[in-house]
Design brief:
189 residues, alpha+beta, 2 domains, three-stranded mixed β-sheet, 4 helices, 32% strand, elongated
């Protein structure tokens, strides 16, 4: 296998920004890189917009590592970087040789791709929910489940909003705030 080119964490963050702009035009993302002893990571944040799983599926290929919680082991992955900045998995030894559960893989390169090791071990994607989306989810959830003792939206520090006045919803066998949050988190805008 050819030798991988190592990218910095900030170069990797630039690729993540480009991929997010390509996949979700018009959505404003905050992409921040952190370098620390033992590794580096990138934090992606946005309000409403695409679902967390949708964003993770785009950015996860830009991570230079993965983690096997069964054996508490971080391991490296290599990536094929295409000329347009898109990336596809290239190689990982996985963790099976260390008694882990992650299988290794090796994929042939796409045309004109170069082998790279991304500068961030992990990429975290955190979607925040706006007051408007939370209010819509609250109204829809209460109407659907017939919740009369409604949760209340409360303003927290730094402009964050959260729900208070949690009650058990018998016909859902769950709490009202969890039902509202689940609905909001599953609603793309």
């Amino acid at each position: 296998m050819t030798e991988a080119t190592y990218l910095s964490c900030s170069d990797t963050a630039k690729l993540v920004r480009k991929a997010l702009k390509r996949e979700f035009p018009g959505v404003k993302f905050s992409v921040r890189s952190s370098v620390y002893s033992g590794g580096a990571s990138i934090n992606v944040k946005w309000i409403d917009g695409p679902l967390q799983a949708q964003v993770k599926s785009v950015v996860s290929v830009y991570a230079g590592g993965d983690f096997d919680g069964m054996i508490d082991l971080k391991y490296s992955v290599e990536t094929w970087l295409c000329p347009d900045g898109s990336a596809v998995p290239a190689y990982s030894g996985g963790t099976e040789g260390s008694m882990g559960v992650h299988e290794g893989y090796a994929f042939a390169p796409p045309a004109d791709a170069v082998l790279v090791h991304m500068g961030a071990d992990f990429i975290f994607a955190d979607r925040e929910i706006s007051r408007d989306l939370l209010q819509t989810a609250l109204d829809e959830t209460c109407a659907y489940w017939g919740i009369e003792d409604r949760p209340v939206i409360v303003e927290g520090k730094f402009g964050a909003v959260y729900l208070d006045n949690d009650t058990m919803v018998a016909n859902a066998n769950d709490y009202s705030t969890r039902l509202v949050y689940r609905h909001a988190e599953a609603t793309a805008r």
